[in-house]
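Quick one: ABC transporter substrate-binding protein from Streptomyces albipurpureus, structure tokens please.
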Amino acid sequence: MIRRRILPAAGFAALLVGVSACGGSAGSGDTTARKSDFCKPLTKTEKVSFGSSPSLALATSAQAEGGGYYKNEKLDVKASTFATGQDVIALVGRGQLDAAMVGYPANIFSAVDRGVDVRIVSSAGQNSADNPSSAVYVRSDLMKNGAVSGISDLKGKRIGIAGAPGSGSYYLIGRVLQKGGLKLADVKHVSLSTADMNTAFETKSIDAALVITPFNAAIDNSGVAEVLSSQGALTRAQATGMIMGPNLLKKRPQVACALLRANINTVNKELAPGYSKRPEVVQRFTDLAKFPKDLVESTPESIYDPTLAVDKKQLEQMQLMFIEQGSLDLKAPLPYAEVVDIELREQVVKSLGQAPQ
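--- reply ---
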């Protein structure tokens, strides 16, 4: 059973107070250390509190519930929606939430570095090459007069980005800029909501922006901005996924396995290519995740790794970008094994009979 409510955003700094007391590596240094068979099926129903940002690529929980995958794993999931992933990290680290599906913000790496028991355990939906759900738009007048014809021409331009510095959106625009030989420091950042980008283009308060579906529709209709080739920078970009905290990783690893296993089964059986044309999938997104039906049917489909694997190279590149930008106070990227709960992933994938990635 899944029960959904909307929670207000909360500042990371305020919530982080006292979190470090939970320090230590996931699955160690606790009275309930993991056993060799910690991924065996549950024998009784367990309650799980779960948070997510309002994005179709992060809404696998609705499909896991509607398709019966949580029930099959004996999970009773209480879901909450948050404005941004940056608001959720401390809640998971403090045990106020068991897990969340969010964008990977800089503060998750800061939290791990400070000893907070929060880890990444999976990836989420990603852009396909032929029909991406995110694109960089540039004002039409700049495209027509030749001021901007390629990524390198964005140097010095005002770029609209949803979220604060250190958000997943910053990583995505950073990947695009790299294709043109630029860095985040080479452009002027304008933080604003995606819904306000069309107006910002009309008033010429921004020159370009990273726009996600469905907000691109208004821009396309107005003709105020045009898509700039990102040279494949957004294809398969991993900036989102599932995180878990001490409630599951240390105290209830068997439940952690069940939750991750349910989501992996969901993306393979319910969110395979063509899912937006399946009435039952659309209905779950509409009824359980509260997305408008026409939005679900018109949004380009996300693609999913079969085991929701977390790309090691991209995780390092993300940290390097945040460090260079100044939103992550580290001298070097944290090792993959400190950020991702590898043992949990390996046990879950093994329990599903798939090859670890």
